[in-house]
Amino acid sequence: MAAYKLTETELQQALNSLPGWQIKEGKLYKEYKFNSFATALGWMVTVGVHAEIMGHHPEWSNVYSTVRVNLITHDIGNAISNLDVELGKKMEEIYGK
Ligand SMILES: C[C@H](O)[C@H](O)[C@H]1CNC2=NC(N)=NC(=O)C2=N1
User: Fold this and answer.
1) 55 lines ligand 1 (CB under 6 A)
2) Domain span at 88
3) Sequence-separated (6 or more) residues with CB below 8 Å from residue 94
4) Number of folded domains in the chain?
5) 92 within 8 A of 28, measured Cβ to Cβ
6) C-alpha dihedral (50, 81, 20, 17), degrees to nearest 10
7) Residue 97's pLDDT band (boundaries 50, 70, 90)?
8) Residue 64 lies in a domain
9) What is the Å distance from ligand 1's center to 8 Cα?
10) In whole numbers, what is the pLDDT of the chain averaged over residues?
């Protein structure tokens, strides 16, 4: 799917449906907490499969049971796109399972 830069209005609407997410240094950011390293890693693997299917990949880091995620689209000059929102929603869906 093609990536397009979101307008400020679209971005605000997206944030309303992404609990705990914020704009940090120009990226869509969230810190996820898990019960254990294994749970965090399992979530990352499932999200990673979806990222690969989408052809859209997160910047993220893991320390024990914490995963910090930054979503940005390199192909459109490092702007937040529809694909970042789609991936963020997929992360929420998998986190809630
Ligand atoms: C060709 C390939 O689909 C592109 O390079 C994709 C890969 N994954 C990507 N991931 C992210 N986060 N941004 C991109 O612009 C991007 N581009």
Assistant:
1) yes
2) 8-95
3) 43, 46, 47, 50
4) 1
5) no
6) -90
7) confident
8) yes
9) 22
10) 98
CB 46 within 8 A of CB 38: no
Tracing tokens 């996820």 back to the chain, one arrives at 32
Ligand 1 center to residue 90 CA distance, Å? 16
Whether 2 is in a domain gets the answer no
pLDDT score recorded for residue 1: 80
Distance 73 CA to ligand 1 centre (A): 7
User: 23-62: per-residue pLDDT in tens?
Assistant: 999 999 999 999 999 999 999 999 999 999 999 999 999 9
Specify if 78 maps to a domain. yes
Q: Closest ligand 1 atom to the C-alpha of 87?
A: 12
Does the beta carbon of 30 sit less than 6 angstroms from any atom of ligand 1? no
Domain of residue 40, CATH code: 3.30.1360.20
* Residue 1 forms part of a structural domain: no
